[in-house]
Design brief:
Elements: H1 9-15, H2 17-28, H3 44-49, E1 52-57, H4 59-76, E2 80-84, E3 99-105, H5 111-122, E4 126-131, H6 137-141, E5 144-147, H7 160-179, H8 185-194, H9 197-205, H10 208-218, E6 223-228, H11 233-247, E7 250-255, H12 256-259, E8 273-276, H13 279-295, E9 300-305, H14 312-317, E10 320-324, H15 332-350
Parallel strand pairs: 1-2, 1-3, 3-4, 4-5, 6-7, 6-8, 8-9, 9-10
Bound molecules: 6-O-phosphono-beta-D-glucopyranose (BG6).
Amino acid sequence: MKETDKEPFFIKEIREQPKVLANTLTKYLGPNLYLKMTRPPLDEATLRGVNQVYITACGTSYHAGMTARYIFEELSQLPTVVEPASEAGRHHLLVDDKTLAVAVSQSGRSSDTLSALNLAKARGAVTLALVNDSPSPLTEAASGYLMTLAGQVFTLSSTKAFTSQTLVLGLLAFRLAQSRGLMKEPWRQELENLGRVPEMVRYVLALEDRVALMAKALANYEQVFILARGALLPMAYEGALKLKEVAHFHAEGYSTGEFGHGPLGLVGPRSPIILIAFADEAGSSTLALARSLKARGAPLWLISEDGPKKDLALSSLADDFFPLPAVQPRLRPMVAIIPLQLLAYHLGRLRRVDVDNPGGLLGGEDWVQPDKSH
Ligand code: BG6
């Protein structure tokens, strides 16, 4: 699809992601340091002293944190807790001076996220802010900060900052692994492959017309479930949030494994299902679920890898198939979210929603207003 000046910022920002991701990699991915940052709290001594990670954020930024947890736990082998900032303090927060507390926020001024960061800080945690705007209340409050380099954001619903957040958090996990002497050779190969992420995202963006057709089909319904598992589950949540936020369309992200414990009762010809699944992780339970969905008459749309590793059993059951390029599993979330962002845009346009100002924001007390004293 050609870009034109009068197009909403929302779609322009979706299309900026290859450039944003390339800028992020150029800034942070170094030949021997996986996060070219050495000042506190990313200095070696601090990172070596960390024994758990606590990530807190709101909305889309929370979903970036959820996906990062899988990488932190595998690479840095640190227990990683991720919670919505609005929940911080509503339970006994087990955070101390050996905790790396990461507050993720595109604006750097979500008040819940600032409060959660200050709560962790009061318990002695080492605090790091990941923001797209500095100076901001979060960068002032944290011991140190990283930028997502997404450039200026003109829309309320985060897209380019989100994929950059996911990439930077992944690099932070690699950096923690490196500081803890846990880097393994295969992971170094993976880091080389990170350079392919912008090109993979560009490949998916080029399939926008197919997503526009999916949006036309979805417009005939009143709701959709988006199913995924593992590090892709936060993408199901994020895709559902985008559809609610930007298309005012009811969507629910759900764990593929959990869906058979109750929600299946809702499924019929009027409840389309978008399934994000890959041959090397789907397994027989996913295939059994897909068969059950079809037996109940549900339209089933599969987002999965195309090519030699295509899941032929699942794709033969699907009514529509969105082909993702072959990428290593750890990079799949950043690629799988792209068709869901585009789907929210096209469905929002069909439903005549102002996709740049969709009205989902609480506003007011939800944001820490710019400090006039500067
Ligand atoms: C919400 C927005 O108000 O704030 C979401 O509608 C956003 O799109 C969330 O993800 C968190 O914002 P931030 O700036 O802290 O990432």
